[in-house]
């Protein structure tokens, strides 16, 4: 593809220099530039890609995309927003790969990962070659690739979708974060179905208010169907959680056909007769294609919602309800989501990714439903993130727990003790006794203390990090896995 062809994809872009130069690849990291590449200058929080044009040119870059005209002999496409331009150009350069497969996107505060895994399982069981992109990993064609966030940058996303299409992937299910929506990372991605799980407080360090957070999520649904596909014409679907009040707003923002699911409200797909135990969750589901009894091997009412979203998406892909039931009942669980740690102890240890007020309350409510003895909760809040949720999460932990061990999550560049104090403020505001909680900055020590204090029949919940295998402290990445640490402590415990 030539420089002028890429420039033509962008409204109001200005091209300086030779537009007939052939581009062999796109790069946004100057360290990855190869001869023939176009280098995209991205401004960032700590570094500015515009400062690396000379380095990119020395590595063989033949053109650049930038937000201001630069002193360089290379052809340059000047745009208002290089991150947005990267999304549009990446989609064009890789031939609109999402249009060549069935795209299912899942957005919401909680439940994205589990919902995508359930849909992937259902589709794979139908012998439909399926790719998955999300918080834990990207996987397709028998290969697993680590991810550093919920939704990749647009360049890597389109590159991956192109590779999926080339390898015969027929369906891709992916998590879509609010950051990705606002930054235009999924611009041009041709989703057939957009799913909304729920909306609760998170990322207010980025979005500032819940109204702004909701509005950003709404963009995902307003853009649904706006992509013109040269390969196919098909109906688009917005799958919305009828029990979440944000769904009413999203329904007004989309031109797609709205299909609802829920428990408490009337919906197109609705669950009833819910029964939760330590072994799993039973429910009856009524859909627009029949009814069924389903026994999940995962616990919690929130997993019923995740299953309902997956059921709805699969029905829209013409999978029979009987086949959906078989697939759902075969899923043992998702990494770091209400994951049991068993090392022969006489009490339960659960690791969960819950890192929002709503997520923590959901998992604690679930634990309380099957706990025979006490609930001992270990949790913290991430540094350099929304501070307002910290006291809220402290209150929630104390409300449902016999003992709370407030500890570090990923402090990043913040002082861990100051984060703990923010959480403690919520405990003090509610008048929680100091006998009910303890501040322990060292996460390993907090886990050890909780497990050492557990008795037969108790449940130890370790929340916040789930599947993560690292801890970010002072800008340094340390190896840390809650599940591994818990097993080590259990095996070394004095009974």
TrEMBL record:
Give a Pfam family name.
Answer: Mur_ligase
Record-listed meso-2,6-diaminopimelate binding positions: 385, 409-412, 464, 468
Q: Which residues bind UDP-N-acetyl-alpha-D-muramoyl-L-alanyl-D-glutamate?
A: 30, 150-151, 177, 183, 185
Picking any one GO biological process from the record gives: cell division
Provide the positions where the record notes the PTM N6-carboxylysine: 217
Query: What subcellular compartments does it reside in?
Result: Cytoplasm
Domain Mur ligase C-terminal residue range list: 336-466
Q: Which cofactor does it need?
A: Mg(2+)
InterPro entries from the UniProt entry: Mur-like_cat_sf, Mur_ligase_C, Mur_ligase_C_dom_sf, Mur_ligase_cen, Mur_ligase_N, MurE/MurF_N, UDP-N-AcMur-Glu-dNH2Pim_ligase
Q: Which reaction does it catalyse?
A: UDP-N-acetyl-alpha-D-muramoyl-L-alanyl-D-glutamate + meso-2,6-diaminopimelate + ATP = UDP-N-acetyl-alpha-D-muramoyl-L-alanyl-gamma-D-glutamyl-meso-2,6-diaminopimelate + ADP + phosphate + H(+)
Organism domain of life: Bacteria
Motif span (Meso-diaminopimelate recognition motif)?
409-412
Top-level EC class as recorded in UniProt: ligase
**GO MF annotations for this entry?**
ATP binding; magnesium ion binding; UDP-N-acetylmuramoylalanyl-D-glutamate-2,6-diaminopimelate ligase activity
Domain Mur ligase N-terminal catalytic: residue ranges: 23-92
Where does this chain mainly localize?
cytoplasm
Q: Which family does it belong to?
A: Belongs to the MurCDEF family. MurE subfamily.
UniProt name for this protein: UDP-N-acetylmuramoyl-L-alanyl-D-glutamate--2,6-diaminopimelate ligase
Please tell me the species this chain comes from: Paenibacillus monticola
Q: What is the lineage of its organism?
A: Bacteria, Bacillati, Bacillota, Bacilli, Bacillales
